[in-house]
Amino acid sequence: xxxxxxxxxxxxxxxxxxxxxxxxxxxxxxxxxxxxxxxxxxxxxxxxxxxxxxxxxxxxxxxxxxxxxxxxxxxxxxxxxxxxxxxxxxxxxxxxxxxxxxxxxxxxxxxxxxxxxxxxxxxxxxxxxxxxxxxxxxxxxxxxxxxxxxxxxxxxxxxxxxxxx
Length: 165
Ligand code: FES
Fold this sequence. Notes:
With 165 residues, the chain is α+β, with helices and mostly antiparallel strands. The protein contains seven helices and five strands, in the order ααααβααββββα.
């Protein structure tokens, strides 16, 4: 699936960083909002990578050890993607209207429900809120890359390609 017809053009920026920035700004970059910010980050990225945690620590002016401590303490935060491949389907309004439910249906039928990892550990599926790339609807973030105007056929082809039964 990641070919020139579906991958976001290079000119299209990944807006997740901007959206996370907005979430931190809403809380005036207060360290007291760490849990809310970690939630927003996980919602956008699916998991909390070390660079992401470092960036949050820097922006909220908190010691990185504190941010890591909170992220590891709560079971609802993930520090790494669970499956070998990670599909995040945007279910914001534009993507929903443009066909996100059909994409979720394909993933649920062939892999697992949103928020889960397939039993063979191959695929993790997550429905996410608007990722700020509505012009690409329906958008899917596949292993960290934003794919534009994804169809159920393209998704099925990619699942075939990576060996999902
Ligand atoms: S609704 Fe999907 S990117 Fe905005």
